[in-house]
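Repro:
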Amino acid sequence: MPMRLVLSAPAKINLTLDVLGRRADGYHEIASVMVQLELHDTIAVEPASALEVECHGAAIPAEQNLTLKAAQLLQEVADCRQGARIYITKRIPIAAGLAGGSSDAAATLLALAQLWGLEGRLPVSLSELAARLGSDVPFFLNGPVALAEGRGERLTPLPPLPPRLVVLLKPPFALSTAEVYGALRLDEFSDGSATRFVAQEIRAGCWPPPERFFNALERPASRLRPELQRYRAAFLEAGAAAVHLSGSGPALYSLFDERGAAEAVYQRLRQAGFEAYLTTTA
Protein backbone atom coordinates (compact mmCIF):
# COMPACT_ATOMS: atom_id res chain seq x y z
CA MET A 1 0.00 0.00 0.00
CA PRO A 2 1.23 3.55 -0.70
CA MET A 3 2.55 5.45 2.32
CA ARG A 4 1.23 8.84 1.23
CA LEU A 5 -1.24 9.97 -1.42
CA VAL A 6 -1.87 13.52 -2.64
CA LEU A 7 -4.95 14.46 -4.68
CA SER A 8 -6.29 17.74 -6.05
CA ALA A 9 -9.84 18.74 -5.10
CA PRO A 10 -11.11 21.26 -7.70
CA ALA A 11 -13.68 24.00 -7.29
CA LYS A 12 -16.70 24.19 -9.59
CA ILE A 13 -19.02 26.77 -11.10
CA ASN A 14 -22.59 26.31 -12.28
CA LEU A 15 -23.23 27.44 -15.84
CA THR A 16 -26.90 26.80 -15.16
CA LEU A 17 -29.00 25.95 -12.14
CA ASP A 18 -32.67 25.30 -12.82
CA VAL A 19 -34.76 24.53 -9.75
CA LEU A 20 -37.76 22.54 -10.95
CA GLY A 21 -39.65 22.17 -7.69
CA ARG A 22 -39.62 20.84 -4.15
CA ARG A 23 -39.32 17.10 -3.60
CA ALA A 24 -41.20 14.97 -1.07
CA ASP A 25 -37.92 14.30 0.77
CA GLY A 26 -37.42 18.03 1.46
CA TYR A 27 -34.76 18.55 -1.20
CA HIS A 28 -35.33 20.38 -4.46
CA GLU A 29 -35.34 18.86 -7.94
CA ILE A 30 -32.66 20.57 -10.01
CA ALA A 31 -31.05 20.52 -13.41
CA SER A 32 -27.59 22.04 -13.61
CA VAL A 33 -24.52 22.11 -15.83
CA MET A 34 -21.39 22.17 -13.70
CA VAL A 35 -17.77 22.71 -14.71
CA GLN A 36 -14.66 22.09 -12.64
CA LEU A 37 -11.96 24.74 -12.24
CA GLU A 38 -8.20 24.61 -11.97
CA LEU A 39 -8.52 26.39 -8.60
CA HIS A 40 -8.23 23.54 -6.12
CA ASP A 41 -7.63 22.38 -2.58
CA THR A 42 -5.09 19.64 -1.91
CA ILE A 43 -5.87 16.48 0.06
CA ALA A 44 -2.96 14.41 1.37
CA VAL A 45 -3.48 11.14 3.28
CA GLU A 46 -1.08 8.83 5.06
CA PRO A 47 -1.48 5.84 7.40
CA ALA A 48 -2.22 6.45 11.09
CA SER A 49 -3.70 4.53 14.01
CA ALA A 50 -6.86 6.68 14.05
CA LEU A 51 -8.58 9.32 11.93
CA GLU A 52 -6.96 12.74 12.19
CA VAL A 53 -7.70 15.81 10.06
CA GLU A 54 -5.54 18.92 9.78
CA CYS A 55 -6.75 21.89 7.77
CA HIS A 56 -4.44 24.66 6.59
CA GLY A 57 -5.71 27.89 5.08
CA ALA A 58 -9.15 27.99 6.72
CA ALA A 59 -10.79 27.09 10.01
CA ILE A 60 -13.55 24.50 9.54
CA PRO A 61 -15.49 23.28 12.62
CA ALA A 62 -15.30 19.49 12.98
CA GLU A 63 -19.08 19.13 12.77
CA GLN A 64 -19.05 20.88 9.38
CA ASN A 65 -16.00 19.09 7.98
CA LEU A 66 -17.18 16.87 5.12
CA THR A 67 -13.69 15.41 4.81
CA LEU A 68 -13.93 13.86 8.26
CA LYS A 69 -17.50 12.70 7.59
CA ALA A 70 -16.35 11.08 4.32
CA ALA A 71 -13.57 9.20 6.10
CA GLN A 72 -15.89 8.03 8.88
CA LEU A 73 -18.54 6.89 6.39
CA LEU A 74 -15.99 4.92 4.37
CA GLN A 75 -14.71 3.27 7.56
CA GLU A 76 -18.24 2.32 8.58
CA VAL A 77 -19.39 0.95 5.23
CA ALA A 78 -16.17 -0.99 4.64
CA ASP A 79 -15.99 -2.18 8.28
CA CYS A 80 -12.44 -0.88 8.18
CA ARG A 81 -10.36 -0.49 11.34
CA GLN A 82 -7.52 1.41 9.69
CA GLY A 83 -6.93 5.06 10.42
CA ALA A 84 -5.42 7.90 8.43
CA ARG A 85 -3.92 11.31 8.86
CA ILE A 86 -5.61 13.69 6.41
CA TYR A 87 -4.13 17.06 5.52
CA ILE A 88 -6.31 19.66 3.77
CA THR A 89 -4.70 22.67 2.15
CA LYS A 90 -7.51 25.13 1.44
CA ARG A 91 -7.36 27.46 -1.53
CA ILE A 92 -11.03 27.44 -2.49
CA PRO A 93 -12.98 30.04 -0.48
CA ILE A 94 -15.39 28.33 1.92
CA ALA A 95 -19.18 28.78 1.99
CA ALA A 96 -19.06 30.44 -1.42
CA GLY A 97 -21.06 28.22 -3.78
CA LEU A 98 -17.87 26.73 -5.26
CA ALA A 99 -18.28 23.34 -3.51
CA GLY A 100 -14.82 23.20 -1.96
CA GLY A 101 -16.00 21.07 0.95
CA SER A 102 -17.79 18.65 -1.38
CA SER A 103 -14.71 18.36 -3.56
CA ASP A 104 -12.52 17.70 -0.51
CA ALA A 105 -14.91 14.91 0.55
CA ALA A 106 -14.82 13.28 -2.90
CA ALA A 107 -11.01 13.41 -3.01
CA THR A 108 -10.91 11.91 0.49
CA LEU A 109 -13.09 8.96 -0.58
CA LEU A 110 -10.83 8.30 -3.56
CA ALA A 111 -7.60 8.63 -1.59
CA LEU A 112 -8.66 6.52 1.40
CA ALA A 113 -10.15 3.77 -0.78
CA GLN A 114 -6.70 3.42 -2.33
CA LEU A 115 -4.74 3.89 0.90
CA TRP A 116 -6.81 1.25 2.70
CA GLY A 117 -6.87 -1.18 -0.25
CA LEU A 118 -10.67 -1.02 -0.57
CA GLU A 119 -10.93 -0.60 -4.35
CA GLY A 120 -13.21 -3.30 -5.75
CA ARG A 121 -14.08 -4.53 -2.25
CA LEU A 122 -16.77 -2.08 -1.15
CA PRO A 123 -20.40 -3.25 -0.86
CA VAL A 124 -21.56 -0.01 -2.53
CA SER A 125 -20.00 2.36 -5.05
CA LEU A 126 -18.05 5.46 -4.09
CA SER A 127 -20.69 7.47 -5.99
CA GLU A 128 -23.39 6.15 -3.67
CA LEU A 129 -21.31 7.07 -0.63
CA ALA A 130 -20.68 10.51 -2.15
CA ALA A 131 -24.44 11.06 -2.56
CA ARG A 132 -24.95 10.31 1.14
CA LEU A 133 -22.50 13.08 2.02
CA GLY A 134 -24.02 15.86 -0.10
CA SER A 135 -25.64 16.69 -3.41
CA ASP A 136 -22.49 18.14 -5.00
CA VAL A 137 -20.06 15.42 -3.87
CA PRO A 138 -20.77 12.87 -6.67
CA PHE A 139 -19.94 15.45 -9.34
CA PHE A 140 -16.29 15.44 -8.32
CA LEU A 141 -16.12 11.72 -9.08
CA ASN A 142 -17.59 12.33 -12.57
CA GLY A 143 -16.29 15.72 -13.85
CA PRO A 144 -14.90 17.87 -15.31
CA VAL A 145 -18.19 18.80 -17.05
CA ALA A 146 -21.51 17.18 -16.21
CA LEU A 147 -25.27 17.54 -16.24
CA ALA A 148 -26.60 17.10 -12.69
CA GLU A 149 -30.23 16.14 -12.08
CA GLY A 150 -32.38 14.88 -9.23
CA ARG A 151 -31.06 16.67 -6.14
CA GLY A 152 -27.68 16.82 -7.90
CA GLU A 153 -26.64 13.18 -7.50
CA ARG A 154 -27.77 11.94 -10.95
CA LEU A 155 -24.91 12.80 -13.27
CA THR A 156 -24.43 12.61 -17.01
CA PRO A 157 -20.88 13.42 -18.11
CA LEU A 158 -20.65 16.02 -20.88
CA PRO A 159 -17.78 16.46 -23.35
CA PRO A 160 -14.80 18.45 -22.04
CA LEU A 161 -14.68 22.06 -23.20
CA PRO A 162 -11.67 24.11 -24.33
CA PRO A 163 -10.31 25.89 -21.23
CA ARG A 164 -11.50 29.43 -20.56
CA LEU A 165 -10.23 31.95 -18.06
CA VAL A 166 -12.39 32.57 -15.01
CA VAL A 167 -12.36 35.49 -12.59
CA LEU A 168 -14.08 34.89 -9.25
CA LEU A 169 -15.22 37.49 -6.73
CA LYS A 170 -15.98 36.30 -3.20
CA PRO A 171 -18.03 38.77 -1.13
CA PRO A 172 -17.08 38.90 2.58
CA PHE A 173 -20.17 37.05 3.81
CA ALA A 174 -21.65 33.56 3.61
CA LEU A 175 -25.01 32.35 2.37
CA SER A 176 -26.69 29.25 3.77
CA THR A 177 -27.64 26.88 0.95
CA ALA A 178 -30.74 25.77 2.87
CA GLU A 179 -31.84 29.37 3.45
CA VAL A 180 -31.36 30.33 -0.21
CA TYR A 181 -33.40 27.35 -1.42
CA GLY A 182 -35.97 28.08 1.28
CA ALA A 183 -36.33 31.65 0.03
CA LEU A 184 -37.32 30.53 -3.49
CA ARG A 185 -40.77 31.66 -4.55
CA LEU A 186 -43.10 29.48 -6.58
CA ASP A 187 -42.77 31.76 -9.62
CA GLU A 188 -38.97 31.31 -9.48
CA PHE A 189 -39.06 27.59 -10.16
CA SER A 190 -37.94 27.01 -13.74
CA ASP A 191 -38.67 24.40 -16.39
CA GLY A 192 -35.10 23.27 -17.07
CA SER A 193 -34.93 24.86 -20.52
CA ALA A 194 -31.79 26.88 -19.72
CA THR A 195 -29.95 23.74 -18.68
CA ARG A 196 -31.17 21.75 -21.70
CA PHE A 197 -29.95 24.47 -24.08
CA VAL A 198 -26.52 24.75 -22.47
CA ALA A 199 -26.07 20.95 -22.31
CA GLN A 200 -27.03 20.68 -26.00
CA GLU A 201 -24.45 23.32 -26.96
CA ILE A 202 -21.74 21.51 -25.00
CA ARG A 203 -22.63 18.20 -26.64
CA ALA A 204 -22.15 19.99 -29.97
CA GLY A 205 -18.59 20.81 -28.88
CA CYS A 206 -18.81 24.53 -28.18
CA TRP A 207 -19.09 26.93 -25.28
CA PRO A 208 -22.65 28.26 -24.90
CA PRO A 209 -23.04 32.06 -25.06
CA PRO A 210 -22.79 33.48 -21.51
CA GLU A 211 -26.14 35.24 -21.89
CA ARG A 212 -27.72 31.77 -21.82
CA PHE A 213 -26.25 30.95 -18.42
CA PHE A 214 -28.93 30.90 -15.73
CA ASN A 215 -29.22 30.48 -11.97
CA ALA A 216 -32.65 30.33 -10.35
CA LEU A 217 -31.06 31.08 -6.97
CA GLU A 218 -29.84 34.56 -7.90
CA ARG A 219 -33.05 36.33 -6.86
CA PRO A 220 -33.51 34.61 -3.48
CA ALA A 221 -29.78 35.04 -2.74
CA SER A 222 -30.09 38.77 -3.48
CA ARG A 223 -33.18 39.09 -1.28
CA LEU A 224 -31.32 37.50 1.61
CA ARG A 225 -28.21 39.61 0.95
CA PRO A 226 -29.18 42.77 -0.98
CA GLU A 227 -25.53 43.90 -0.89
CA LEU A 228 -24.75 41.10 -3.34
CA GLN A 229 -25.88 43.48 -6.08
CA ARG A 230 -23.17 45.98 -5.09
CA TYR A 231 -20.53 43.31 -5.66
CA ARG A 232 -22.06 42.41 -9.00
CA ALA A 233 -22.00 46.08 -10.00
CA ALA A 234 -18.35 46.41 -8.93
CA PHE A 235 -17.47 43.32 -10.98
CA LEU A 236 -19.11 44.84 -14.06
CA GLU A 237 -17.45 48.20 -13.44
CA ALA A 238 -14.09 46.40 -13.34
CA GLY A 239 -14.69 45.35 -16.95
CA ALA A 240 -16.53 42.02 -16.86
CA ALA A 241 -19.03 41.64 -19.69
CA ALA A 242 -21.32 39.24 -17.81
CA VAL A 243 -21.40 38.18 -14.15
CA HIS A 244 -23.07 35.05 -12.78
CA LEU A 245 -23.73 33.51 -9.37
CA SER A 246 -22.30 30.04 -8.72
CA GLY A 247 -24.52 27.63 -6.82
CA SER A 248 -26.24 29.30 -3.89
CA GLY A 249 -23.45 31.89 -3.75
CA PRO A 250 -22.25 34.31 -2.77
CA ALA A 251 -19.31 33.79 -5.18
CA LEU A 252 -19.69 35.52 -8.54
CA TYR A 253 -17.82 34.59 -11.70
CA SER A 254 -17.12 35.83 -15.21
CA LEU A 255 -15.59 33.94 -18.15
CA PHE A 256 -12.98 35.35 -20.55
CA ASP A 257 -11.43 34.29 -23.85
CA GLU A 258 -8.36 36.52 -23.56
CA ARG A 259 -5.83 36.39 -20.74
CA GLY A 260 -5.15 40.12 -20.91
CA ALA A 261 -8.80 41.00 -20.35
CA ALA A 262 -9.14 38.51 -17.49
CA GLU A 263 -5.98 39.72 -15.78
CA ALA A 264 -7.06 43.35 -16.10
CA VAL A 265 -10.42 42.67 -14.39
CA TYR A 266 -8.75 40.55 -11.72
CA GLN A 267 -6.18 43.26 -10.96
CA ARG A 268 -8.83 46.00 -10.76
CA LEU A 269 -10.85 43.94 -8.29
CA ARG A 270 -7.80 43.21 -6.16
CA GLN A 271 -6.69 46.85 -6.20
CA ALA A 272 -10.18 47.86 -5.05
CA GLY A 273 -9.83 45.56 -2.05
CA PHE A 274 -12.02 42.67 -3.18
CA GLU A 275 -11.25 38.99 -2.61
CA ALA A 276 -10.74 37.83 -6.19
CA TYR A 277 -9.26 34.78 -7.89
CA LEU A 278 -7.96 34.17 -11.42
CA THR A 279 -8.19 30.60 -12.68
CA THR A 280 -9.30 28.53 -15.68
CA THR A 281 -11.88 25.86 -16.36
CA ALA A 282 -10.52 22.31 -16.16
